[in-house]
Amino acid sequence: MLTALGPAPIIAVVFLLLYVSCRRHDPRMLRNGVFLTAAAFFALVTVVSALTLVVPGFGFVVAFGLLLVPLAVVALGVALIANGVQMLRAEGRSLGNMLSLVAGVLVFVLPAIAVALFVSTRSGASSPWNAIGVALAVLMVFVCGYFAVALVAFAVYSVVYGRMRHGLTPDAIVVLGSGLVRGEVPPLLRSRLDRGLGIYRAERAAGRRPVLIPSGGQGDDEPRPEGAAMAEYLLANGAEEQDVLPETASRNTRENLAYSRAVQTEAGRDGQVVVVTNDYHVLRAATLARRLDLPAQVVGARTAAYYVPSAFLREFVAVVVAHRWLNVLACAPFVLFTAFLLWESFQQR
């Protein structure tokens, strides 16, 4: 039976062991998501293969499921476009708010381009342009496949990490800022502050007294720093004044974390940190905390469902950009393979 299943069970176990080992070392590493996704994929392959061997007719069920994949892709594209339109109506026009709309359009456009490139090689006389078209189509399939897998791994581990219980005893609770609306705390930011207050109250009930650090500077379109408005909200909702130490100079998540750590240490609190943000932002904030070598773990607050797809895609793009050279290196074999196919084609002419 095991021999008939091929190498999939062994590969699944190897990736699972890598995941468990790396997660125990540091749960904030992005590679954990790659290992977990690979383990789940090969475990699924193992289960499907086993059922195909022992359940008569199960192979037809698998084949039918594969035939539904194109319909699932179409449904995904339609859902992303619909979400993009909703985002533009609810949040206004901006590049970040258009990400789900752009992604939905690309779900339809990129396969159409690849098919058109392949079909064009079947018509007319053979020419160097046909070979180039095939090479570009192959490269597009490889690169899109790579980023699709990376997105799935990032999504899977974002959910897993966001549901971990870290068991910290925090000296500080850092609440990351987001934009104010006319100088006031909007619902998105309020959800972060409420989650931070919940942790603060639980620590106080346990006899501990961490400091609350609302973190955020003043944007070009904001009448006051985010940290100041956040501190006002915390005080109005039960936090003790001596426990609230706002950070008001940061301009991005990295600075939120670094500057808040400085505020924490200046207050004589150099212990562990719980960072609070929204659920879609948890994993990227955690990876930044790791790169800054902070003794911090990140927890998420709930976000309106319609807001999550665009916000999550924005986080994925930010992670890709932050690790751009790693991604270039990962895509290099695809480029080299495509170049080899192209060279072989010209050699045969």
Topology record:
Layout: H1 2-5, H2 8-25, H3 31-54, H4 58-67, H5 69-91, H6 99-120, H7 128-162, E1 172-176, H8 187-205, E2 211-215, H9 226-236, H10 253-266, E3 273-278, H11 282-291, E4 296-301, H12 308-322, H13 324-347
Parallel strand pairs: 1-2, 1-3, 3-4
Helix pairs in contact: 2-3, 3-7, 5-6, 6-7, 7-13
Describe this structure in words.
It is a single chain. This protein is of the alpha/beta class and 349 residues long. Among the domains are: 1-67; 172-303, Rossmann fold. Helices cover 66% and strands 6% of the residues. It has helices spanning 2-5, 8-25, 31-54, 58-67, 69-91, 99-120, 128-162, 187-205, 226-236, 253-266, 282-291, 308-322, 324-347, and strands spanning 172-176, 211-215, 273-278, 296-301. It has a four-stranded parallel sheet with strand order 2-1-3-4. Strand 3, helix 11 (282-291) and strand 4 (296-301) form a beta-alpha-beta unit. Helix 2 packs antiparallel against helix 3, helix 5 runs antiparallel to helix 6 and helix 7 (128-162) runs antiparallel to helix 13 (324-347). The longest helix has 35 residues, at 128-162. The radius of gyration is 25 Å and the shape is globular. The two termini are 48 Å apart. The model has no long low-confidence stretch (mean pLDDT 88).
Q: Brief overview, please?
A:
By secondary structure, the protein is an alpha/beta fold. The chain is built from 13 helices and 4 strands. Helix 8 links the parallel strand 1 and strand 2 (211-215).
Question: What distinguishing features does this structure have?
Answer:
alpha/beta, Rossmann fold, 4 strands
